[in-house]
């Protein structure tokens, strides 16, 4: 059975360039902090990767701090970036990934006022709502770029400008885990102060990510120790992960536009092919071409997921990160935040592409999707 | 002192009460002890049968602390403790060894007593005479001791058998009790991913029932992770039973057929009847003599007395329901003690929860259930097919 992997938003298949880069470091295994030649070689690997990541987002090399992944970068940004003397208010949305949403709950415990911006049915932030929220002195705004469940992309440039114009002291954090190397990012033009990214979503390895911290912005580190990463993130560096991240970013950035176009074609093709089905609603206008989120009437998402998995097509129910959380009702918090009905939020599945997916794969997957939906709808299951 | 040796004294409960077939049970227990010791690589050992006891002795050094858990998990054993074995049964030898033992194990000042059991009736002194003499000897030779026969701080046990043994009840580690693994014959356990059924399996195994577990898998309605959970539960149970056979029965077709043909409020009862029927047939294949379920009276709609009565006729096999009269919290306590609880609470649905009606019947009528079931065409064929397609996993 040919396997078709359509869950790249959960994790993407590692790129050859990333595998090669990681394997090279296995031979060249020195500790970057060691003073000898092997240590220096390892340090060079890290600095090469740092430059590649910096280039990918229009930042400076010295503004990139490697972390253990997106979750750590988000935690570091929120707990390190919010300073009460700049205002007790923190602004975010109700459609954030758990690695932002959960730290926000903790922020409330720590005495901050966390304000969740209302979203339109399309999942977007109304810039005027943000401007109004900034009237109270605010220390941090944390907003995702591309939503992990729906693919909806916020207009970060517009939001960034509003923040800099109305409240220049406010730190602007963007969770760019789903957009890094997929959607153009320019931290300067977008007025971003902190930006989280992850390696394994773009074909790097798991266990590695980075936080961009604008030069003049100071955040408190979470880990203290041997002074690595400019004392911002102590602990011996994950050299294979970092080398692979650099290689993956280096491979993705030159092809960003072409990949974007290709993903858009896959998405259009898939949606077009399943069009004959009734009771399918696409969630999120204006979403990233890499993600399709849709509600499939009358079928529990994990049942559809299991059925497709048995046919060798791997998709996701809502978001993979939340499927091991113990919640009885499987509704998507993100779709509820968009103001969509409970029924629609309970029946959402996510299909996410990587640039390596082919049009043939999209065609076969669409066919299997149609078969599974028809078959499952034919079975009278008590809801 | 070469005739004084540290040994492991293992006591078994109920088996000792058996009549002429006692040796069969003893040998089964002996096999389990030998198997566990060999598996745990416990060195060069020898197990001696004494009346109502097993005594394990070693050639060379032994780490008792490491060995103990491998013994005290065996069904049929009530306790195990480290004691002294004396080849020389003279009173002088016993007194010397008792003094050495008391000095090591009895922190003074303390009250004490000596309690003797004389299985070897040829021994020239009676039990109470031995106790008195050894007690006197300890009083004379050890500071800070005082006799208290009713509630002593420290009891020194002497047993005169084919050898003399000395130990203290304080150092006894409790075993699970029950009967030796497999001594009762085989039973088919209906294992879901829940909290109750693994506990039912454990209790059945404790009474010597060899387990074959049956799990009903309904892809795509139940996920691979739900199956993985049941596999992990079966593996956990195999720690107690030594081995386990898990039979995974594809249940989707049967389930869909029943859902199509049954009023929603009756579906749970019909699904359960189908499961019992299949398990009954598997029991025959496996030469098992009973089915075991995790039913607890009144816990959910399908476990009311009415609902249990409505299972009548689904199978000819006797159904053992070890948890029938347990409260939920009692079941949870056992589940925690046997470490199945953390596996059971993983959030993956089993086939019943996904098909659960909003208002299941709590007082189903057997006659109606039977007639609804009778109207489901080719159910028998579907069941045959499911059994033929079952997957077997051995632990």
What does this structure look like?
The complex is a heterodimer of chains A (about 375) and B (about 400). Chain A is an alpha/beta fold and about 375 residues long. Chain A has helices spanning about 15-25, 35-55, 70-80, 100-110, 125-135, 155-165, 240-250, 255-275, 300-310, 335, 340-345, 360-380; strands at about 5, 65, 90-95, 115, 140-145, 170-175, 195-200, 210-215, 280, 290-295, 315, 315, 350. In chain A, the strands form 3 sheets. In chain A, strands 2-8-7-6-5-3-4 form a 7-stranded mixed sheet, with helices on both faces. The longest helix of chain A is centred in the first third of the chain and has 21 residues, at about 35-55. The radius of gyration of chain A is 21 Å and the shape is globular. Chain B contains 14 helices and 15 strands. Chain B has helices spanning about 20-40, 65-70, 90-105, 125-140, 195-205, 225-240, 250-260, 265-285, 305-310, 330-335, 340-345, 350-355, 365-375, 380-390; strands spanning about 5-10, 45-50, 55-60, 75-85, 110-120, 145, 155-160, 165, 175, 185-190, 210-215, 245-250, 290, 320, 390-395. In chain B, the strands form 2 sheets. In chain B, strands 1, 2, 3, 4, 5, 6, 7, 8 and 9 form a 9-stranded mixed sheet that branches. In chain B, helix 7 (about 250-260) packs antiparallel against helix 8. The two termini of chain B are about 45 Å apart. Classes of the chains: A alpha/beta (about 375), B alpha/beta (about 400). The interface of A and B includes residues 303, 306 and 308 of A.
Biggest interface, chains and residue tallies: A-B, 20 and 18 residues
How would you state the average pLDDT of chain B, rounded? Answer: 92
CATH architecture of the largest domain in chain A, by name, is 3-Layer(aba) Sandwich
User: Distance between the terminal alpha carbons of chain A, to the nearest Å?
Assistant: 32 Å
Low-confidence stretches of chain A: 319-328
Fourth-level CATH superfamily of the largest domain in chain A: Type I PLP-dependent aspartate aminotransferase-like (Major domain)
Provide the low-confidence segments of chain B as ranges.
none
């Amino acid at each position: 059975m040919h396997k078709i992997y359509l869950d790249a938003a959960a994790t993407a298949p590692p790129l050859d360039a990333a595998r090669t880069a990681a394997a090279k470091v296995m031979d060249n295994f020195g500790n970057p902090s060691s003073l000898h030649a092997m240590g220096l070689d390892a340090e060079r690997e890290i600095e090469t990767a740092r430059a590649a990541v910096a280039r990918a987002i229009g930042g400076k090399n010295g503004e990139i701090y490697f972390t253990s992944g997106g979750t750590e970068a988000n935690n570091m940004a929120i707990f390190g970036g919010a300073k009460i003397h700049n205002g007790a208010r923190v602004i975010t949305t109700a459609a954030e990934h758990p690695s932002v949403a959960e730290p926000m709950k903790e922020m409330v415990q720590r005495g901050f006022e966390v304000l969740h911006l209302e979203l339109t049915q399309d999942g977007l932030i109304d810039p005027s709502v943000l401007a109004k929220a900034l009237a109270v002195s605010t220390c941090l705004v944390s907003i995702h770029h591309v939503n992990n469940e729906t693919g909806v992309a916020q207009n970060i440039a517009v939001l960034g400008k509003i923040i800099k114009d109305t409240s220049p002291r406010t730190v602007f954090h963007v969770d760019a885990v789903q957009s890094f190397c997929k959607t153009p990012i320019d931290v300067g033009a977008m007025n971003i102060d902190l930006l989280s990214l992850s390696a394994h979503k773009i074909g790097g390895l798991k266990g590695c990510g980075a936080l961009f911290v604008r030069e003049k912005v100071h955040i408190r580190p979470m880990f203290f120790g041997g002074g690595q990463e400019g004392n911002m993130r102590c602990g011996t560096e994950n050299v294979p992960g970092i080398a692979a991240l650099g290689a993956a970013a280096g491979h993705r950035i030159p092809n960003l536009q072409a990949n974007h176009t290709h993903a858009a074609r896959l998405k259009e093709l898939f949606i077009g092919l399943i069009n004959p089905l009734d009771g399918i609603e696409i969630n999120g206008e204006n979403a990233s071409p890499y993600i399709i989120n849709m509600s499939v009437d009358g079928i529990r998402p994990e049942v559809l997921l299991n059925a497709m998995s048995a046919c060798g097509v791997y998709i996701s129910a809502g978001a993979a990160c939340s499927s091991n959380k113990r919640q009885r009702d499987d509704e998507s918090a993100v779709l509820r935040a968009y103001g969509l009905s409970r029924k629609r939020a309970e029946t959402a599945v996510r299909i996410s592409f990587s640039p390596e997916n082919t049009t043939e794969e999209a065609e076969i997957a669409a066919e299997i999707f149609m078969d599974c939906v028809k078959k499952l709808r034919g079975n009278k299951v008590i809801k | 002192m070469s005739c004084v040796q540290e040994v492991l004294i293992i006591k078994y409960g109920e088996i000792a009460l058996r009549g002429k077939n006692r040796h069969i049970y003893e040998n089964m227990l002996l096999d389990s002890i030998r198997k566990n010791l060999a598996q745990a690589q416990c060195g060069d050992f020898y197990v001696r049968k004494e009346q109502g006891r097993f005594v394990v002795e070693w050639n060379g050094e032994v780490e008792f602390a490491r060995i103990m858990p491998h013994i005290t998990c065996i069904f049929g054993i009530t306790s195990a403790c480290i004691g002294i074995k004396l080849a020389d049964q003279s009173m002088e030898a016993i007194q010397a060894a008792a003094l050495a033992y008391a000095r090591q194990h009895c922190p003074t000042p303390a009250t004490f007593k000596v309690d003797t059991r004389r299985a070897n009736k040829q021994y020239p002194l009676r039990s109470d005479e031995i106790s008195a003499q050894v007690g006197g000897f300890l009083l004379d030779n050890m500071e800070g001791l005082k006799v208290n026969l009713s509630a002593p701080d420290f009891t020194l046990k002497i047993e005169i058998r084919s050898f003399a043994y000395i130990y203290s009840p304080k150092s006894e580690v409790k075993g699970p009790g029950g009967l030796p693994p497999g001594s009762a014959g085989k039973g088919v356990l209906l294992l879901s991913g829940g909290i109750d059924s693994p506990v039912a399996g454990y209790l059945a195994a404790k009474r010597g029932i060899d387990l074959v577990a049956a799990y009903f898998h309904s892809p795509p309605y139940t996920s691979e992770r739900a199956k993985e959970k049941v596999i992990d539960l079966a593996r956990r149970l195999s720690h107690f039973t030594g081995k386990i056979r898990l039979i995974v029965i594809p249940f989707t077709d049967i389930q869909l057929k029943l859902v199509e043909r049954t009023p929603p409020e009756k579906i749970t009862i019909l699904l359960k009847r189908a499961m019992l029927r299949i398990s009954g047939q598997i029991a025959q294949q496996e030469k098992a003599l009973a089915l075991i379920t995790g039913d607890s009276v009144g816990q959910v709609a399908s476990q009311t007395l009415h609902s249990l009565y409505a299972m009548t006729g689904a199978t000819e096999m006797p159904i053992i329901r070890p948890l029938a009269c347990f409260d939920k919290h009692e079941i949870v306590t056992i589940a925690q003690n046997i470490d199945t609880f953390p596996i059971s609470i993983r959030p993956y649905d089993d086939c019943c929860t996904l098909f659960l009606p909003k208002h299941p019947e709590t007082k189903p009528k057997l006659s109606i259930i039977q007639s609804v079931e009778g109207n489901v065409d080719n159910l028998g064929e579907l069941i045959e097919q499911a059994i033929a397609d079952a997957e077997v996993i051995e632990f």
